[in-house]
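Note to self: keep these together.
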Amino acid sequence: MTLIVDMIPACHDNDDILQAKTVLETEAEGLLTLANAIPPCFPDVVNLFLRTQGHIICSGIGKSGHIARKIAATLASTGTPSYFVHAAEANHGDLGMISKADAILVLSESGINSELQGILDYAGRLHIPLVGMTRDSHSELGRAANHVLLIPPAKHACPLRLAPTTVTTMMLGLGDALAVTLLQRRGFTPQDFKGFHPGGKLGKNLLSVADLMHTGAAIPTVDQMDTMPHVIMEMTQKRLGCTAVLDEKKRLSGVITDGDLRRHLTPDLLTQTAESIMHPHVRTLRPSVLVKDALAFMNRHQITSVFVVDDDGVLCGILHVHDCLRAGFGKQD
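Structure:
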């Protein structure tokens, strides 16, 4: 072991940083080359994937296979149903996972690999649309494909020209370009995205007020002419520190908080009506507002609850700061 370590050439930290910079600049140049040479069939592939009734099957071998797996994950998470099929496993039964309703995207730098032949033959036999992403349009993959997403020549980041580096970065970039273009063509929204990402920090950041707010009978409400015993009972039962005051048309006309009760604590308090002590100017939010923005709104206005109204101004919910805290949000959010 000592012998092996001794054989490693000495290198300064600056040399390592320079090498890393060279690799990244080389791969960046590859992406710029690709950006200026988008395959002419790119719109045709987008339209094909939009028309596909089944799934987009991404496949490949080696490093190209890893990129294909990532492209499949990105497509699936942005509204284009997709999954990865390993080309070698396809030759041993996984071809059965691919139906005539699908389209296939195969990645291969050279476009020539015996392990790809099974999936290419299968696509041709069942007339399943096949898209190839390769550097060689005249390769086996290029000839078999209905559309070829041609990767233009670019300098290798690996000085030995052995490990796939720049080319896989370019494939990944082109896959992202496909996914984002499809996302936009489908009119994919943040709410759609949230449906595919319920977990983790991303899922939390996409939660809307509608996901956490109290609705229906859980909303504390009183009428303008209700007397204070009824108001106090409603606030005590709902335990949100406030109540909405509704007019004769059941629309939000004011709010009463625990603080308002204390400020109006006089001998005749219980004889007064809700309208006489309510705040007529109520801060409200729409159901579509993100929870993190709603929490910032409450912090900014130093309130612990906010009423939620729809586009017509109709009361549809109430959000309390504790709802946000239970969902994992905090003042730092």
